[in-house]
Amino acid sequence: MQIHIVFVEPQFTGNIGFLARTMANFGFKNLILVNPPELDEDAYRFSKHARYIIENAEILNNFEELRRSLDYLVATSGVSTKSPKKFKRIALTPREFAQKVWNFSGNIGIVFGRENYGLYNEEIEKCDSLITIPTSEEYPIMNITHAAAIILYEIFMEKREEEGMPLAEEFELNLLNERFSELLGLINFPDHKRKNTEVMFRRIIGRAMLTKWEYHSMMGVMKRIIYAIQAKDDY
User: Which residues form the tRNA/rRNA methyltransferase SpoU type domain (predicted)?
Assistant: First the structure.
């Protein structure tokens, strides 16, 4: 498994340096910058002995390129998602995520957003899971490098030597969600409840971080249920 740290549209090059330094503290080397400013001396100066991380960073033009380049994306946000009117998934804490991540293989990206705004809602929805750090409600938003340090520390402490199982990919999760929507239609689930139920299912799948084996098992069960309902209707 390869974990990539992603910084989307950073505003200040010094923060790129601080992030690289934080990554080096916990043994992470793969940095991806999405539409960054031109890297200047501040980026390298603030990275201290982690200059090599910036020199080897991958530069992408936009979020769509990021989505295509990695198998599994994990968004980060300081916004609570307990309300069903918020994002399409309930967030994991850094510790909950760390306890799961080393069980899998593939290329995983932990995505940090802009210093002034974070990730846009549509970017979070394109990710497969979501991490939020529990903080005071009076001031929940953290500096990116402080947030990165907490998340990377938890992952570092849970590190395992065993090779993990591959995670279900984005297109597979989308197929699973589509199959669930099809099932709701077949059982005449009430229209006024359908959207929230689909959102709830996406949240469950996002928190579960399904392996490919789990995905195929769930798809098999859903297909059998759908075929059984269709056969009964035909009869």
Answer: 3-153
The residue out of 97, 130, 161 marking a domain boundary is 161
User: What confidence tens digit (pLDDT) does each residue in 162-190 have?
Assistant: 456 788 888 898 899 999 999 999 999 99
Give, in order, the Cα–Cα distances in Å from 21 to each of 11, 15, 43, 152.
Answer: 17, 10, 10, 12
Q: Residue 162: what are its φ and ψ, rounded to 5°?
A: -70, 145
By the 8 A CB rule, do 20 and 54 touch?
yes
Residues 10 and 55 in one domain: yes
118: left (phi over 0), alpha (psi -120 to 50) or beta: left
Q: State the Cα–Cα distance between residues 105 and 157, nearest whole angstrom.
A: 18
DSSP state at residue 169: P
Single-letter code of the amino acid located at 181: S
Q: How far apart are alpha carbons 1 and 104 in whole angstroms?
A: 7
DSSP H or E run through 126:
none
- For 59, the enclosing helix (H) or strand (E) is strand 58-60
- Per-residue pLDDT, averaged over 206-221, amounts to 87
